[in-house]
Write a structure and sequence with these properties.
Helices cover 31% and strands 19% of the residues. The longest helix has 10 residues. The chain contains 8 helices and 8 strands. It has a single domain, classed as TIM Barrel (Alpha-Beta Barrel), CATH 3.20.20.70. By secondary structure, it is an alpha/beta fold. The protein binds D-xylitol-5-phosphate and zinc ion. The site of D-xylitol-5-phosphate has 21 residues, from β2, β8 and α7.
Length: 216
């Protein structure tokens, strides 16, 4: 079953509650929350207060938290307590990846590891047993609305070839068209910002993405 996770980075920030309600009503499977520290990526976005506010307003919504931070280790407990269901860190950070993944799991959250476009996905092979999900960036992280990088598809295929049975996520420039290649290559979790949250007919976008898994 394909999971569709709207990125709230593309939402109308002044109407966040309404935006989340709208995404839930059209059948999204949760939310993708992009946390940016202005250091790992050249942008700033949300912190744990946003995760906590969403958890309070939407007790049952699934929150997939993507930490684009250099030093996530010190914040795992905070995000877990704020209400994250899944926490993804980046493979490029100068911290002890194994320890952080174990820490995320020990707090009852799904643990994820993400690779930027220039990172060779094979470098994370040793961490896969500690991952519930892997996020393959299909744009340079930092901003929504960028162009999808189709040359990331071999990373998805490689992950499935290793026998990895967790979630395989794609993030960046994913729309109903580019999602087809992603699903064909092994992705089962689609993070969608602009193409879903800002769509005139988001229900149609979700229908089109769900139909992809019916194809051989
Ligand atoms: C980019 C973020 C993405 C972003 C995707 O750094 O990780 O989650 O919101 O936005 P779109 O779908 O517009 O590329
Ligand atoms: Zn993201």
């Amino acid at each position: 079953m394909i999971k569709i996770l709207p990125s709230i980075l593309a939402a109308d920030m002044l109407r966040m509650g309404e935006e989340i309600t709208r995404m839930a009503e059209v059948g999204a499977d949760g939310l993708h929350v992009d946390v940016m520290d202005a250091h790992f990526v050249p942008n700033l976005s949300f912190g744990p207060a946003m995760v906590k506010a969403i958890r309070k307003g939407f007790p049952n919504i699934y929150q997939d938290v993507h930490l684009m931070m250099d030093n996530p280790a010190a914040y795992i407990a905070t995000f877990a307590e704020a209400g994250a269901d899944a926490i993804t860190i980046h493979a490029e950070i100068p911290e002890n990846i194994e320890e952080i993944l174990r820490d995320i799991r020990s707090r009852g959250c799904k643990a994820g590891l993400s690779v930027k476009p220039k990172t060779d996905v094979r470098t994370i092979e040793g961490y896969l047993p500690l991952c519930d999900q892997v996020l393959v960036m299909t744009v340079e992280p930092g901003f929504g609305g960028q162009k999808f990088m189709a040359d990331m598809m071999p990373k998805l295929r490689w992950l499935r070839q290793t026998g990895f049975a967790g979630g395989v996520q794609v993030d960046g420039g994913v729309n109903a068209g580019t999602a087809r290649d992603c699903v064909a290559a092994g992705a089962d979790e689609l993070v969608m910002g602009t193409a879903l949250v800002r769509a005139a007919d988001p229900a149609a976008v979700i229908r089109a993405c769900r139909a992809l898994e019916d194809r051989p």
